[in-house]
Specification:
Number of domains: 1
Shape: globular
CATH superfamily: Vaccinia Virus protein VP39
CATH topology: Rossmann fold
Structural class: alpha/beta
CATH class: Alpha Beta
CATH architecture: 3-Layer(aba) Sandwich
Radius of gyration: 19 Å
Distance between the termini: 36 Å
Oligomer: single chain
Number of strands: 11
Length: 288
């Protein structure tokens, strides 16, 4: 997909960590990787950057008190350094997006406002902010403030004057599970009720900020066409890539943690096996 361009740009880091059909994973810092890609080569980006909330606190998981620390990559380096990081990767994303390309960014209040500022500062045009409501969110253990039960997603396009992809007819509220309005043909609202990842989505392990497949399905189908290229600069367990591949899109994912790329590869191989089996069964049913 990008292999030839990357060989010219960065001979020491051009080889995909994992590649199968139109699904590629790279072990790299997303800023370095993005700056090596051809300009205006990506149709859509989904980004789930570090939330910077690993501060020694605790949360509830499966009824137990567990630390919120996710790793060094999630620790804040201070307001100025965190903002600088978001400015760098968001600017790098804008360079590789096509004129009508769009970016989705997910986050909590720990990070999303800095991302929004960085988006506007670097020339993007914000289209929507989505409230992803989690009906099965973990309870608040301190009982000192409201229970966190949503994340915010910002959807923005590269150029205000460019025409972006929005598959309006697919986004009928009555056609999707978990929404608040069920009347036929009603427009989808900006509050989405979707549960956190199901146990089957964590068969091989999990990423600490893993997104549910249902959420990415909605995002990918809303803002891309078949055959277009989707990129995730913080791919983690690559839910974005699995959904993109399942629905006929090309995918490139980047992460600087080898363990998460290994997890991504396992998830992809299982998906491909299941897709191949389903395709074989369909062929067997075709009359000779």
């Amino acid at each position: 997909m990008f292999t030839e361009a990357l060989i010219m740009a960065k001979p020491n880091k051009t080889k995909p960590y994992f590649k199968n059909n139109n699904f590629e994973l790279y072990l790299d810092d997303c800023r370095d990787f993005l700056n090596s890609l051809p300009e205006e080569s990506v149709h859509m980006i989904f980004a789930d950057p570090p939330y910077n909330l690993s501060n020694g606190g605790f949360t509830c998981h499966a009824g137990k008190m567990v630390p919120v620390n996710k790793g060094k990559w999630d620790k804040s380096r201070g307001l100025d350094e965190d903002l600088k990081f978001h400015m760098e990767w968001i600017k790098a994303c804008r360079r590789v997006l096509k004129p009508g390309g769009t970016i989705w960014i997910s986050g909590t209040y720990h990070s999303i406002y800095r991302c929004g500022y960085a988006l506007e500062s670097t020339g993007y045009h914000i289209l929507n902010d989505i409230a992803w409501f989690k009906p099965n969110a973990a309870p608040n253990l301190s009982c000192r403030y409201f229970t966190a039960s949503h994340e915010t997603l910002i959807w923005a396009r590269k150029e205000k004057s460019a025409k972006h992809t929005f598959n309006y007819d697919l986004m009928r509220n009555s056609d999707w599970p978990g929404d608040f309005i069920k009347k036929p043909s009603k427009q989808m609202r900006s509050v989405w009720a979707i549960n956190t990842p199901k146990p089957i989505e964590k068969t091989f392990g999990k990423h600490p900020t893993q997104k549910p497949e249902e959420l990415l399905k909605r995002i990918v189908l809303a803002s891309t066409q078949k055959g277009q290229l989707v990129l995730d600069p913080f791919t983690g367990s690559s839910t974005t890539g699995l959904i993109a591949h399942l629905h006929g899109r090309k995918f490139v994912g980047v992460d600087n943690e080898k363990a998460y790329l290994d997890l991504s590869a396992k998830r992809f191989n299982l998906l491909k096996t299941n897709m191949d089996k389903k395709r074989s069964r369909k062929l067997e049913m075709v009359p000779a």
